[in-house]
Design brief:
homodimer; alpha+beta; Mth169, Chain: A; three-stranded antiparallel beta sheet; 31% helix; elongated; Phosphoribosylformylglycinamidine synthase subunit PurS (chains A, B); PurS-like_sf (chains A, B); ligase (chains A, B); purine biosynthesis (chains A, B); nucleotide-binding (chains A, B)
């Protein structure tokens, strides 16, 4: 069993209206020091026994289903579970 | 300037229908080895000069605005930017 942590972020050049809205809210309640805020996704997968290569599977899943590679970047970590 | 990375996850006891749906989709296209999948949020904040303690600010923001502590857990990392 492996535990895979995937971090999905919007590319730098892509506007993040959700992040801007949250940053605006924080500013209103007194957190002016927040200069930038961007929101992404964090996925935790548990992967069972498989004969396939774990990196290959994770990359395939990210590119087919889990992320939109046109506007998003991803990185991942694999841990023994 | 500090860069803060915040990871927000649903508590273990809370159902994650979004994660289950994605896991179902992965299974359908041939990734049966995915035993569990949970989806959380990943926030990247840039925090400018402040006289306040960074840990205090981040915890306050998480508990007031960024997370719902009834159903979510969070952890964070602070890096020099």
């Amino acid at each position: 069993m492996k535990k895979v942590k995937i971090y999905v972020t919007l590319k730098e050049s892509i506007l993040d209206p959700q992040g801007s809205a949250v940053q605006g809210s924080l500013k209103k309640i007194g957190y002016e020091e927040v200069a930038d805020l961007r929101i992404g996704k964090y996925l935790e997968l548990t992967i069972g026994e498989t004969t396939r290569d774990i990196d290959t599977i994770v990359k395939e899943m990210c590119e087919k289903v889990l992320t939109n590679t046109v506007i998003e970047n991803y990185r991942y970590e694999v841990e023994e579970a």
